[in-house]
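Input chain follows. Return structure tokens only.
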Amino acid sequence: MEVIEWIQNWYHNNCDGDWEHMYGMKIYNVDNPGWAVEIELIDTKFEDKVFEKVQYDNGDEDWLLCFVKDGIFQGNGDSRKLKKILDIFRDWVEE
């Protein structure tokens, strides 16, 4: 399954009549240029799951940082890392 379809399903499966009114996810571009992804985990079964930070910096066109802080998965990367960020989230959820 492609990661976009997978993330849609993950979102749908967490919508329970309450969660989606308080929490959710954001995918947006940043100006360095790159991507930022925020996925709120509060009131999901992943809220307390340990996430090992993923980070590398090989210059302006090859960098990535993913971590969980305060119940939010946060992924940031260069302009070609959106799929990689979502794949990291999916791999963590499915492990």
